[in-house]
Sequence to fold (313 residues):
Amino acid sequence: MQLFIGGAFQGKREFMKQLTGAAETEIAEAASVSDTKEYRALDHYHLRIRKQLEQGQDPVRKLEQLLQEQPEIILLCDEVGMGIVPMDKKDREYREAVGRTMCVAAQKAEKVYRVICGIGEKIK
Amino acid sequence: MMILVTGGAASGKSEYAERLLLQLGQGKKKTYLATMQRDGKEAEARIARHKELRAGKGLETVECPVSIARVIQECHPAVLLECLSNLTANEMFCGTETNNTTGEEVFTIQHEVAQKITEEILRLSEQVEILVIVTNEVFSDGLPYAGESLEYIRELGRINRLLAQKADSVVEVVYGIPLWHKGLLNFER
Fold:
């Protein structure tokens, strides 16, 4: 598994495509895709986590299941933890869940890239 | 030479950018391109504080809250442009028009400002020897923005990417510590 992280609008998807050669048709919107097995990469994984929370699912468990089924999957996820604590409880839980889930993802990933200003760097 | 300096709020990026300019621009005349809009006491206080910090450093201040292209001829060979988050906000949100029915002053929004700002800055960089640009990391707080705020963040992200592509160096400052993402400089490592 390869993980691409960074702030919003930093060019993660472009960088990932250049690096891995993935085509647009191989990339799915993580929050709305029905069968992930048809795709090579899941973009906006943070939105998938948000949806899982809304449906009362455990994002870490869901990630582990996904990785068992598709150990070669590419995940793209926003970094969301660098702001003040959100006022809303749901937003706090979401931010926490994305962080915790991505820690697990980074641990399991073969490679992790962080993208800033369009520039990607391998951090693992 | 063009260097893009990024970092979070109060990360020390301004001081670092200034040191870069003073070091790289040694022996050259220097301009501080200030983008803050004079729109109230808080702005005046910030401007006064920043002026004090720059006093005696040989930086001539040129104020330019919008349209960098207008002041290119006034700039010395070494320029510090601070900062893109202000400039982008000014370009996007500073227009007003009068509502015909109510007579009220309402803000107007300029869309797609990234291209204009980037082009103007690239023109500036061609005219000067050293350009240090300060931008801002506002992309990782995870809040679900919408509308104008989302558009603002997207435009600033676009400007950062476009400029980083053209820049000789890109550095992120984390609590005063420089992390070079592009074109490592042998500067106080």
